[in-house]
Structures are given as C-alpha cells and as structure tokens.
Amino acid sequence: MQPFAYHRPDDAGSAIDAARSKSAQNGPPAQAPGQFISGGTNMSDYMKLNVMQPEVLVDINRLADPRYREIRADERGLRFGALVRMSQAEDHPVVKSQYPVIYDTLHLAATRQIRNMASLGGNPLQRTRCEYFRETSWPCNKRNPGSGCSAMNGLNRQHAVLGTSEQCIAAYPGDFAQALIALDATVEIMGPNGARTIAFSELHRLPADTPNIETVLEPGELITFIDVPAGPWTRRSRYIKVRDRQSYQFALTSAAVAIDLDGKAVRDVRIALGGVATVPWRARDAEAVLKGKALDESTAMEAANVAFSTAQTREHNAFKVPIGKQTLVRALLEAKLMEA
Ligand code: SF4
C-alpha cells in the first residue's frame, strides 16, 4: 500500500475541499487521487491491492450533519442519508414492509459484518470484481487506459453480456443499485460548485472507450442523499439473486422488479438486471412488453427474451443469457403473488 494523507473533517464543504486539495489534483487522471472513504469495504481492498492509490483519503464518518445518518420514510418515499449503513436500512421496518425489493438487495449482499460497515452512499460506487482489474500485472483498460482488456479473450465467466464495449466487459457487481434504478431513485450530490440532483439511472457511465470513467461524478463530488419515490409498485417488488454459493457472493444474474397490477393486467412494471451488465441495467424494452398484459409464465418469458435480445456473449459467459432470463421470469412471477 502506498503512503497517503488522511483527513477526517466534520463538514461536507471541508471534505470536498480536502478531496480536491492541491496535492490531490496532481495525480494520474485514471485514478482520482483524492478519494472519500466511509465504510471502506471496497476502497481498503483496492488500496491493499494497489489497484487504487489515493494520495488523499477523506474520511467522511465524522460529518456532523445528522441527516447523513438518517432514514426518512413518509408519504413522499424514502430518503437515505449517505452515511446510513446497509444493515441499518435492512432493519428499517418501512423498508422491509413497503419496499421489499430494497430489503432483498441489502439482505442478500455480502455478509452482515460487511453490511454493518458499508454505507449507502458508497455502495453504488463499488467497482468491478473483474480479476484482471484486481491483479495489477495484467493489462486492463479500466485500471490502465489503453493497455488492453485481458478478459476479452481470457477467463470471462463472470463478465457482462449487456452494455459491453470493445474496451471493457466487466460486470457491475452491486445489488442495491438494481433496486434504486428500478424504483426511479434520485441522487443528491454535493460538490465544489454546490448541490445537484440527478436520476440514479444517470449516475453510471457505460464503458464505451473510457471504462476508467465509471460515473458522472466530478472530482470532489460527494453523494449526500439517495431518494426513492413512493409509488403503487413498491410493495409488490422482489429481487432474485443467482450466485455460485448461497452467501457472501456476487450475482451471476439477478433481477429487481416492481409491479402495479390492475386486476390481472400489468398497469406498470419496473425491471432491472444485475450480474449481466456493465452498469446497473434498467430493461425498459422488457417493461413495455408487459404493460397492459396479464402477467404469466408466457408473457414473463416474452419480456425476458426482449431484455436479453442485445446480449453479446463471450467464450465462458453465454450461460448467463438463459439463466438471466429464468431469473427475471421467477422475479416477476414471485412479485405477482405478493400483497399490494
Ligand atoms: Fe479491465 Fe474491463 Fe477488461 Fe476487466 S473487462 S480486464 S476491468 S478492461
């Protein structure tokens, strides 16, 4: 691990200034040299592996504003402060009863010990588990732009089939993000130029020619709140996660769904796919297939076929397409049976 400066400010403005401090601006562009840390469950891994080498680490755990640690639940929806821990949200009675898809994504992630540490603001920013990204002796466009992609013709069983590019096929690893993108969450961001709010669906960038730039966050910008709007679809919602083992493992395929039914017909449906795409993946074309129709195994599979119609498979990951479809079908049919 490389030496780094450590700051622990008590207000967001100072944290942002520290992340953009002069020394922090002189680092290589591919690896932002000023980084925030909260739970540290991802950052500390990458620092130990020398995948990330921040010059300045800004610990935001002591920010004084209590709202950053609170969950607000009311008729407008949910507001999560960025420092809320995953386990804190998982244990919240309104999250569990009114937004089960969020509960599922939290409960099925990592381990309880990790969820006690990891923050909701940091969780969506976790980086890929592509082994070539984590092992610095291999070429990797995400870690070292222009060096090549070792996974393209290497071991790519874990890799994405949707949203890939010729430069990178790494899968986005998170679960919580699938619930957020399905439920039309927004993200409040504070930065050197003040606060701004964006749709969660705009936060992550497809790899295209610059897989090293993973989000639209500018240097020194900090996620402060995540808002999830209320809606008639949130109670009938489900997340299914398929993985190599039943605990402490990333998704091979996953599906987050939320449904509003009008009798037997689908009035509204939201679908997100995990484990199969380079970013949190909203399957809007698949949603369109279901709207106005009765939801059954046949229409669910019709939607699943559309969801994966643009999949590009590699030597070892073609199995993700049929399993991904079945994951989505199961999520839809299980959600249909839930109480609204
Ligand atoms: Fe690097 Fe992406 Fe290729 Fe993995 S898939 S080796 S992260 S460029």
The fourth-level CATH homologous superfamily of the domain at 237-336 is CO dehydrogenase flavoprotein, C-terminal domain
Bound molecules: iron/sulfur cluster
Mean pLDDT score: 95
The tally of helices reads 11
Q: Which runs of at least 5 residues are low in confidence (pLDDT < 50)?
A: 26-30
Helix and strand topology:
Blueprint: E1 5-7, H1 12-19, E2 34-37, H2 43-48, E3 56-59, E4 71-74, E5 77-81, H3 86-90, H4 93-98, H5 100-107, H6 112-117, H7 131-134, H8 176-182, E6 186-191, E7 194-199, E8 222-229, E9 237-242, E10 253-262, E11 265-274, E12 281-282, H9 284-290, H10 297-307, H11 320-336
Parallel strand pairs: 1-3, 2-3
Antiparallel strand pairs: 4-5, 5-8, 6-7, 6-8, 9-10, 10-11, 11-12
Helix pairs in contact: 5-8, 9-10, 10-11
The structure holds iron/sulfur cluster (SF4).
Describe this structure in words.
Mean pLDDT is 95; it is low at 26-30. α10 crosses α11. By secondary structure, this protein is an alpha+beta fold. Among the domains are: 5-62, Uridine Diphospho-n-acetylenolpyruvylglucosamine Reductase, domain 2, CATH 3.30.43; 237-336, 2-Layer Sandwich (Enolase-like, domain 1), CATH 3.30.390. The longest helix has 17 residues, at 320-336. 25% of the residues lie in helices and 20% in strands. The strands form three sheets. A five-stranded antiparallel β-sheet has the order 4-5-8-6-7. Strands 9-10-11-12 form a four-stranded antiparallel β-sheet, sandwiched between helices. Residues 128, 130, 132-133, 140-142, 149-151, 168-170, 211 line the site of iron/sulfur cluster.
